[in-house]
Amino acid sequence: MLELIVPQHAVLGQNVSLECNFNLDGEKLYSVKWYKDGNEFYRFVPQEKPPALKFIHPGVTAIVHESSQRVVVLRSVNLMSTGRYRCEVSAEAPSFQTVSDHSDMTVIALPEEEPIIRDRSMERGKQRYQTGDVVRFNCTSKKSKPPATLSWFINGDPVDPQFLRHHPVVVDERDGLETITLGLEFRLRSKHFKKGDLKIKCLARIYTVYWKSNELSIEGERSLKIPVMESRETRAQGHTHAEHILETDQNFKRRNPLLHFGLNYSGCRTNLHLNALSLSLSLSNISTWHGIKRNRKSKPDK
After folding, report:
1. Which of 36, 48, 183, 254 is the most buried (most CB within 10 A)?
2. Where would I find the Ig-like domain in this sequence (predicted)?
């Protein structure tokens, strides 16, 4: 009976413990041997002095004084430590029963810094964004093994794959570490500006060992467009925008009734409803004005 515990992922430069738990059903242990890709690198034989012995192979160096018949500790694993590890347990005579099991381990070189977001649109001299602009970002995770998996988020939501721009992985010839870049390109809509700003996040992850992100918050340039007749929603100092226009229009008519009539007659269609109202009020004012004049003429001199 054998239970093998080998971490699926290990971080470059760290010490790693491998465990081999066994039950020989009452038989006496003869030896425990460890192999990496078929090459023996550690042996434990209780009857020998010393019982533990290590063998040097690229990528695996056992720390003997920290190891035992059930545990072997590897010193400062590197990329060459990636591979298949096998534990083989043998019983003493007369049965010489042997059991073994194996498991794979991958050594990961983590990026030295969080992912970097580069704004390609701002590099072209643009200072602020507004609805309708096409924005372009690059997210780069530098020098890792394997390369990080990159993901984009807009205001917390995963980005549609159609907006992603993939770039070739760049491999450093000196150490074999890889740099990856993922682009993002999309057109801004009003829905993107929640609470006045746009949040862009890039997440870099490597299996379950590495998980880091970087976020960019961008304030949008939002222009306010006031409709010609905004009668219920836009209020200032207790009056609607339409009421303010009407009050201004009435003041103008009082001062220039005939001129106002002429201006309204040549107005555009979008203001037709106001022009009709202005015309009615202008004619009313003219009638009133003529009525006052007639009344003045009809009064007898005292």
Report:
1. 36
2. 13-100, 115-156
- pLDDT tens-digit readout, 80-121: 999 999 999 999 988 888 999 999 999 999 999 999 999 887
Looking at the chain, how many residues does it have? Answer: 302
Nearest to 114 by CA among 235, 201, 5, 192: 201
Residue 12: strand, helix, or coil: coil
Start-end of H helices in the chain = 241-255, 257-265, 272-298
Per-residue pLDDT of 237-260, as tens digits, reads 444 443 443 344 444 445 444 434
CA angle 90, 93, 96 (to 5 degrees): 35
Give the separation between CA 233 and CA 125, rounded to whole angstroms: 37
Strands in 29-36's sheet, in edge-to-edge order, are 9-11, 98-108, 83-91, 29-36, 39-44, 52-54
List Cα–Cα distances, 69 to 37, 43, 245, in angstroms: 20, 8, 92
Nearest partner of 221 among 189, 257, 252, 196, judged by Cα: 196
For 230, the token pair is: 């905004």
Q: Extract the runs of DSSP E, i.e. beta strands, from the chain.
A: 2-5, 9-11, 16-22, 29-36, 39-44, 52-54, 71-74, 83-91, 98-108, 116-119, 134-144, 149-154, 157-158, 164-166, 170-171, 178-187, 197-206, 210-219, 235-236, 239-240
Does the pLDDT at position 177 exceed 60?
Answer: yes
Decide if pLDDT at 204 tops 80.
Answer: yes
Half-sphere exposure of 21 (CA within 13 A, CB side): 5
CA dihedral 191, 192, 196, 201 (to 10 degrees): 150
% of residues, the chain, pLDDT over 90 = 58
